[in-house]
């Protein structure tokens, strides 16, 4: 039984706590927040055994096997370093860090400490990912040529989104899913990237992203934190196309032929929240003594961070680093 702890007690921590409650091989062991009262309230609500009023105190608990870092992006690096220095395996929420340099340093530290470290980008771990891969591999839509996708939510009033000091903006919060989506379909040989952004309060609120891959495959995407988009993805091939309802957590996957006729609809496995797959991957890795999860290798985490660094550089947007 893996004893899991959550570092941070915000909204995303709630989703992970709900997930753990429905899992059989993971124990909701500890939670840490900036105040003991908040941690105790969280622990009582979601059935955690221990509550701590500081991150350091929780990380001194020898019973903690795996820590889920649920703080804002700006704090991921320092919190993950703290976990690793205390000998804890880490599942760090996306975006992994603020930039690729932080990601490389964090991964090097985990390798030095011989600890598991992986990015909690849930779309990489889902069974629906394998369904999409198999449809393409089986040639159901012929040779894949392009894709479109969008992901957006009305988040503009949330402080971590509009505050540059918290590494705000659309790219690190939702655009990261689009970059991963395109790479999961077309691979890692990117030949060109073009992007633009609409800014408000000093952070990107709307991003337009075009990525070209080896073989002239094109991904055209938009991320948004100022409006709710339909979250759809479409993968186009020479014999038809795939429609994915909600690329962030697929609810329906349909295949159409070149005459726009529905050929097949693939059922999506029932789930607790969708977060359980990344936790299960961590459990397997810890049991096997692995330092990374094959679903999201360290090299891929760094590559995605490098792509997003390049986009922000082209916009003239430099995120202040936490001191």
Word description of this protein:
This protein is of the alpha/beta class and 323 residues long. 36% of the residues lie in helices and 28% in strands. The strands form two sheets. It has an eight-stranded mixed beta sheet with strand order 8-9-10-7-11-12-13-14, with helices on one face. It has a six-stranded parallel beta sheet with strand order 3-2-1-4-5-6, with helices on both faces. Helix 4 (73-85) packs parallel to helix 5 (100-113). The mean pLDDT is 96.
Please tag this protein with its features.
single chain; 323 residues; alpha/beta; eight-stranded mixed sheet; 36% helix; 28% strand
Shape: globular
| End-to-end Cα distance | 37 Å
Radius of gyration: 20 Å
Mean pLDDT: 96
DSSP strand (E) fraction? 25-35%
Strand line-up in the sheet with most strands: 8-9-10-7-11-12-13-14
Number of helices: 10
Number of strands: 14
């Amino acid at each position: 039984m893996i004893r899991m702890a959550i570092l941070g007690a915000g909204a995303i921590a709630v989703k992970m706590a709900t997930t753990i409650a429905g899992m059989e091989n993971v124990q909701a062991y500890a939670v840490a927040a900036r105040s003991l009262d908040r941690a105790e309230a969280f622990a009582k609500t979601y059935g955690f055994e221990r509550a701590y009023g500081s991150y350091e105190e929780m990380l001194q608990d020898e019973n903690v096997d795996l820590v889920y870092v649920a703080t804002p992006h700006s704090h991921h690096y320092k919190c993950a370093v703290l976990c690793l220095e205390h000998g804890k395996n880490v599942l760090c929420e996306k975006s992994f860090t603020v930039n690729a340099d932080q990601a490389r340093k964090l991964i090097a530290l985990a390798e030095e400490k011989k600890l598991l470290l992986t990015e909690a980008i849930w779309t990489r771990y889902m069974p629906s990912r394998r369904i999409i891969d198999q449809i393409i591999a089986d040639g159901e839509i012929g040779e894949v040529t392009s894709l479109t996708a969008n992901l957006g939510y009305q988040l503009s009033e949330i402080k971590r989104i509009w505050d540059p000091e918290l590494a705000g903006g659309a790219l690190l919060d939702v655009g990261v899913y689009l970059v991963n989506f395109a790479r999961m379909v077309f691979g890692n040989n990117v030949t060109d990237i073009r992007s633009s952004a609409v800014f408000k309060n000093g952070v990107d609120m709307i991003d337009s992203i075009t990525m070209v891959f080896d073989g002239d495959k094109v991904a055209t995407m938009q991320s948004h934190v100022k409006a709710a988009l339909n979250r759809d993805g479409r993968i186009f091939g020479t014999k038809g196309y795939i429609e994915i309802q909600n690329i962030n957590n697929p609810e329906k996957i349909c295949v159409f032929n070149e005459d726009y006729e529905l050929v097949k609809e693939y059922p999506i496995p029932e789930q607790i929240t969708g977060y359980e797959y990344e936790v299960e991957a961590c459990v397997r890795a810890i049991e096997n003594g692995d330092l990374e999860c094959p679903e999201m290798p360290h090299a891929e985490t760094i590559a995605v961070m490098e792509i997003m660094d390049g986009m922000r550089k082209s916009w003239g947007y430099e995120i202040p680093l936490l001191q």
